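Appendix B, Record 12. Input sequence as logged:
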Amino acid sequence: MRTCVRPRLQSIVVVIPLLALAVMPGAEAATSSSPVINAATTEEATYYIVEDLGVLPGDTTSVAMAINELGQVVGTSSHSASHRAFVYTDGVGMVELPGLPDRPNTYANDINDAGQVVGRADAGGTDLGHAVLWTGGVIKDLGVLGDESDFSEALGINEAGHVVGFSTTSGTGGRHPFLYTPEAGMVDLTPGEGGYLYSAVAYDINESGQVAGYRNNLAFRWENGQFLNLGVLPDFAYSFGHAINDHGQVAGSSSIAQGDVSHVVRYTDGVGLEDLGGISNRDRAWGINNHGTVVGEARLNGVQRGFVSFGQGLIPLDELIDQSLGWGILVARDINDAGQIAATAYNNITGQTHAVRLQPTSAPPPACSFQCLRVSDIELSAKAKSRGSVVTVTAKIRVADEDGRPLSNAYVLGRWTLPGGETSSFNLFTDKWGVATTQQSAGPGTYVVTVDNVILSQYTFDPDNSVLTKSITR
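Logged structural output:
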């Protein structure tokens, strides 16, 4: 479903614009020897329609993790301590994937074009779960590399049904990357390596069986028992591989030794490790398609922004969507060859975090992506008190649709400019006649009312055909 068709809101306490909290492109993020690169422009980019995938019945939150070439999206829908894996299919919607008898909580991480899904099932609490595979909606426990005190998680699957992920091992400890095939079962890719703090993970697998991941804090590409070390960026210490396409290109990140600065990287045969740049202090890629387009997330002080990279530089996805609908893209996890993106977004209007699918479109979003609403008039009146030393000005802001019909419950955001130059913001709803009323009192002079935005589900604000400001002098 498209986000321009949203449930009608009954109340909003406060709206916090997500973009106001985000780091703008070009912000300082690295050491002086590793400057931020942000060469991409919207001329290279497409635009996206945000499709809200919703939640499973009874849940409040959902996240998207992967998308296949058919546009099916998998992820997790949650409420409180309950987590349920889902697969979203056009014409069907979001469908729950079953858990194991002793592990009812489920998480989906990847899906192939045959509809096979991989992820994890756990019992909650201290149980960290087992890697699982769903085929035709039937779940299979893939087990662990060690004993029942160990845990595992499946992260990627290819068209042959080969699965990669990680598992702890009772023998050597730490996390080991595994490859699961129907013939051989779960096989440790680094047998005998490591110790208690050892961490190696296989994140993704392509159609030729090449695997991307990291071990000893270095990104690798594995093939037929051989590891290729992908290296690190100059002046950086570590690297991590998170996704691989059918050409063997690996996307991930490279970070400095302290771990508080990382850049997005892409490895290509014959080219090596490329620095795609950063827009915050912690940037990482999660997905790559066969065109080499990379998606991921940027983090700064807990604030997330999803991005897309068509080559050199990162473009925040918030800049490529209709922001009047309230969405802020938190993280982009995967992208298919059609350019559809599986992402997770926060809606500033509803206050909800949902799995979304970003549908590419060749042109900028229209002024009204669904139907328009406008400020048809701002009516000002003034009354003087105490022999004119105090003036009270009332503003009535009228909101209507394209045909002039008044719209109730529209959320109006604006500001007053008072005679002394001070400003005061307001946010309020229109009544049943489509009128939002606000007042200010100060000394004599000129009062100015300005409308910045109007929000109502199923409508898009049309500022070009609205009355946005009026003044009165008293």
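Residues 19 and 328 are 7 Å apart (CA to CA).
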